[in-house]
Amino acid sequence: xxGDYKIERGISTPFPPGDTRFSMVRTTQFxxxxxxxxxKAYDKYGPxxxxxxxxxxxxxxxxxxxxxxxxxxxxxxxxxxxxxxGDLMPLLGxxxxxxxxxxxxxxxxxxLPMFHKERIxxxxxxxxxxxxxxxxxWHDGQELDxxxxxxxxxxxxxxxxxxxxxxxAAKHRHGINPADEFENALAFWSKDYIFQVLRGPGSxxxxxxTAAKRLDSVIYAEINRRRAAGDLxxxxxGLLLATTQDDDGKLLLTDRNIRDEVMTLLFAGHDxxxxxxxxxxxxxxxxxxxxxxxxxxxxxxxxxxxxLYPPAWIGPRRSIEEAxxxxxxxxxxxxxxxxxWVSHHLPDVWEDPFTFDPNRFTPTNRDKxxxxxxxxxxxxxxxxxxxxFGQAEIHVIASKILSRFRLEVQPGYxxxxxxxxxIGPRDGLPVTVRTAQQPAAGIGGDGLSDPxxx
Length: 454
Hints:
Elements: H1 2-10, E1 18-19, H2 24-32, H3 34-45, E2 48-53, E3 56-61, H4 64-73, E4 78-79, H5 89-92, H6 101-111, H7 117-135, E5 143-145, H8 146-163, H9 167-174, H10 178-186, H11 193-196, H12 204-229, H13 236-241, H14 255-286, H15 298-308, E6 315-319, E7 323-325, E8 328-330, E9 335-338, H16 340-343, H17 363-366, H18 387-404, E10 405-409, E11 417-418, E12 424-425, E13 430-435
Parallel strand pairs: 1-2, 3-9
Antiparallel strand pairs: 2-3, 4-6, 5-13, 6-9, 7-8, 10-13, 11-12
């Protein structure tokens, strides 16, 4: 906080127009309902504006032109590590979300082979196995929380497909449930800011750190096991282990670096899938005839879900040099953030932006979307490395469910969205399972129409 204050006091370029005086009411609203707050500020100030959140001014850049500037054309002028993604480092460490420059390029290069189309097709076999096993436990009339059900399923898939870790063995060998520990760790960021700064016994911080240490024990044990066996493995963890030294024997990735990448990708891989599946079936339950229409397009429905509810809802950066965005000057060394969630709801970009309408993403209509308007996975060189894997996983889960069941959101349920670090249904998604009379349109009996179009 002291460092942020010194930087703010030392800048010579004025902040863009906005609300720059301290307000606890604004800070609380940003924590609980940032979409409404930022849409109102956009309407008042335009695509580039300032909002003071707790102790510092943050520059927000919204809309197609601003997104393209930050993500593509001037991406090199904005750092990740010194942005607010640094708040995730106590759990994720120096993973892909919090590193820049040469180290980021090295880490990304090491992992890219795992996300080639052929490797993802191999992972789909495992995805089908896990989803079938989970769905075989469902029956007509069953009540369950789809959000938490998907959370455990997605973590199982990520652990097995990416890192060769058996979740059941982890429970037996280490005495912990990795899905529960992730839940405990991520709960820290759902707390109001005032509680996040506490550090004593019983605080959210302490519970997050305890959960992280338990997850560490599983990851480090697998690293040590593979090295002792002399078999690094043919998965993402194996690729990382094989990148520890260059041709001259120079150390590239330490065990700590590998741990950080594993933790980051487990977080990104299961949390984003979970929220997208939950929000998709929330919307389908509100449009119960949609999945049975002859022209139902699951891919379009998924893209529309990602428009309304992009999991990585905000992209925090810090400017390096002074810049100009949409005609507005931004000072150097200040927090600059884009928000896919807000950009996807701008009324001057999207018609009826709060309406769930998969037709926006039919082949004809998709070409009409302005460049930079739709950014659920970021853009440019920092586009989510696991995007294709995540799309395939979500498609398998959703199509398998729709081939056998329909889900009804339980009466009285009112969706509220929680954010930090990703968005999701604050109170889960309680549903009642109904056996489908036939698979959804365009989906075969095996639940797959096109498992991946990468």
